[in-house]
């Protein structure tokens, strides 16, 4: 409840002296023993020079149009991309999507709001995409019969977080709109509604943002159906994040400001690249408007119509190549990989196993080069690489993994670990008394290794991998 009558006067000077980040507001809310939603209202009072009632009324008023659009989506609305999904779900009855009543209502409302968006438009925050889960949450709170002031404080928290994504969104990208912003807001609101403190709210937001990083937008906003799982996923991911924080001891160390800043940076840098790839596959499936296409040359329209078959044929050949390289169904899963990642640990370990098999005599030194994303995960992959290089241990040898730094063969052995910028690269050099080994390879998922060059020879490395049962990749 927002019951801090004198808080605004006391904190006013501090809140107006500088712009507080979300992480700083979390610290301030913890210090004062108030919820983040309460502090969002207090900050608005101080910055806008308005009373508490004026802020709460103003917050509610901003949702007025969007709530009307939601009602249209629940009743008679029909979207050119989502059809009548809102009224379909209403007709399906309680629990149409998920057993939890509140979350089901939030999902149905969110999808209905998007239908309303395609009928009468929405008031956007970062975009109209995140306005859908925002509005769906607000309506779900109303349906749950929550206290009006509690709802309005929840709305204030929604808008406070949403305002950051509104500023951070510079190009197309659902990670800063419907999916990312929606998931973060959902996590924050649900964590607070369920009794979580400011620090828990921040941790839930970090968890919710993680799977949304770099998710594109444009290719789906003109393709039937795809948007539904993005904005609906925001509710589900946010709910999962809130429950993980509130019900488990899951460690979450990343500061919420760091996560939001990264999301915005990835959004700007990656969106054009990702969107360009998506266009190559999904553009033929974009919805058309016959009245608009009448202005386009017939040859262009004919070419676009042919693109559907071309893209489908191309995609099937690409999938066929993947299946040709796949293992039989009864041997599909690879070996157990300690350390938690088949690509970050399994592949480098198997590289080192190949090197160990080729080396002869006593090992004099080991030099390891890892691409940046492997280097930053060296805490989990270096123990595995060393156990394989020194003892030949397989990826499933947990005893060797945990005990490698106490192994006699590693004692006083010179080891270097170097970061390189070239993507996917993992290299190892084992200097030995009788035969030294050098492998230049590429990191691959499932514990696979892509061999590029080798000493004493590439053929010997390929043969060693075959003898060890290590799957090589192109």
Summary tags:
5-stranded mixed β-sheet, alpha+beta, 21 helices
Shape: globular
Using only C-alpha atoms, the radius of gyration works out to 27 Å
Helical percent range? 55-70%
**If strands are numbered along the chain, what order do they take across the biggest sheet?**
2-1-3-4-5
N-to-C SSE series? HHHHHHHHHHHHHHHHHEHHHEEEEH
Uncertain regions spanning at least 5 consecutive residues? none
Compute the number of helices.
21
Query: Main β-sheet, in a few words?
Result: 5 strands, mixed
The count of DSSP E runs of length 2 or more, i.e. the number of strands, is 5
Calculate the terminal CA-CA distance, rounded to whole Å.
Answer: 59 Å
- Structural class of the helix and strand makeup? alpha+beta
Mean pLDDT: 93
- The proportion of residues in beta strands is 5-15%
Description:
It is a single chain. With 474 residues, this protein is α+β, with helices and mostly antiparallel strands. The protein has helices at residues 7-17, 22-32, 36-48, 52-62, 64-75, 85-92, 101-120, 128-143, 148-168, 180-193, 198-209, 218-221, 226-247, 256-282, 290-293, 298-324, 342-358, 372-375, 378-391, 398-403, 458-468, and strands spanning 363-371, 415-420, 425-432, 437-443, 449-455. 60% of the residues lie in helices and 8% in strands. It is globular.
């Amino acid at each position: 409840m927002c019951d801090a009558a004198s808080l605004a006067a006391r904190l006013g000077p501090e809140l107006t002296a500088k712009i507080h980040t979300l992480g700083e507001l979390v610290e301030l809310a913890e210090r004062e023993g108030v919820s983040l939603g309460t502090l969002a209202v207090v900050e608005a009072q101080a910055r806008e020079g308005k009373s508490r009632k004026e802020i709460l009324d103003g917050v509610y008023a901003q949702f007025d149009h969007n709530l009307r659009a939601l009602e249209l989506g629940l009743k008679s609305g029909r979207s050119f991309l989502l059809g009548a999904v809102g009224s379909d779900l209403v007709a399906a009855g309680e629990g149409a999507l998920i057993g939890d009543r509140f979350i089901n209502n939030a999902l149905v409302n969110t999808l209905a709001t998007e239908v309303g968006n395609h009928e009468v438009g929405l008031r956007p925050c970062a975009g109209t995409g995140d306005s859908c889960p925002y509005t769906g949450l607000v309506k779900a709170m109303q349906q749950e019969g929550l206290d009006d002031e509690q709802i309005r404080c929840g709305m204030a928290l929604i808008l406070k977080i949403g305002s950051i994504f509104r500023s951070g969104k510079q190009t197309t990208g659902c990670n800063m709109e419907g999916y990312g912003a929606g998931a973060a807001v959902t996590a924050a609101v649900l964590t607070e509604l369920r009794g979580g403190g400011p620090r828990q709210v921040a941790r839930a937001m970090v968890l919710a943002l993680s799977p949304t990083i770099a998710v594109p937008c444009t290719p789906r906003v003109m393709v039937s159906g795809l948007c539904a799982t993005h904005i609906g996923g925001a509710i589900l991911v946010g709910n999962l994040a809130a429950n993980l924080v509130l019900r488990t001891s899951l460690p979450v160390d990343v500061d919420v400001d760091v996560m939001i800043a990264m999301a915005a940076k990835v959004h700007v840098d990656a969106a054009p690249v990702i969107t360009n790839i998506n266009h190559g596959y999904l553009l033929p499936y974009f919805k058309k408007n016959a009245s608009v296409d009448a202005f386009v040359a017939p040859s262009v329209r004919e070419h676009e119509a042919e693109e559907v078959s071309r893209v489908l044929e191309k995609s099937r050949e690409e999938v066929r190549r993947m299946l040709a390289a796949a293992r039989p169904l009864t041997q599909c899963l690879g070996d157990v990989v300690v350390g938690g990642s088949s690509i970050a640990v399994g592949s480098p370990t198997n590289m080192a196993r190949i090197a160990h098999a080729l080396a002869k005599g006593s090992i004099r030194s080991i030099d390891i080069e890892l691409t940046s994303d492997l280097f930053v995960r060296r805490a989990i992959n270096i123990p595995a690489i060393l156990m394989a290089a020194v003892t030949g241990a397989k990826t499933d040898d947990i005893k060797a993994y945990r005990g490698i730094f106490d192994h006699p063969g590693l004692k006083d052995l010179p080891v270097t670990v170097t970061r390189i910028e070239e993507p996917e690269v993992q290299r190892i050099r084992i200097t030995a008394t009788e035969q030294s080994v050098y492998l230049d390879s590429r990191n691959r998922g499932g514990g696979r290794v892509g061999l590029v060059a080798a000493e004493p020879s590439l053929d010997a490395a390929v043969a060693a991998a075959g003898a060890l049962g290590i799957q090589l990749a192109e």
